[in-house]
Design a protein that fits this description.
elongated, 2 strands, two-stranded antiparallel sheet, mainly alpha
């Protein structure tokens, strides 16, 4: 059976995470009834090219872990 090259696996993982994040962002935007709702809510979720940062209220801090790519490099028997 063929397996995906680790370089491609990383790209596929990041693309999948980006897709989920962008869907989350679209949902947050569509849940807001007025443009001012977005301004007073704090920060929306944001995709930075590697991670999805969750939305947050004004004055709060968000932290994210590095992407979990370790498993992509483990060889399976």
């Amino acid at each position: 059976a063929e397996s995906t090259h680790p370089d491609c696996s990383i790209i596929l993982l990041v693309q999948e995470q980006e897709s989920h994040c962008l869907a989350k962002i679209r949902e947050e935007i569509s849940d807001s009834t007025e443009p001012t709702d977005l301004q007073h809510r704090g920060c929306l979720s944001e995709w930075d090219g590697v991670n999805c940062w969750s939305s947050d209220s004004i004055g709060e801090t968000v932290a994210v872990s590095c992407p979990d790519i370790e498993g992509l490099f483990k060889k399976s028997n």
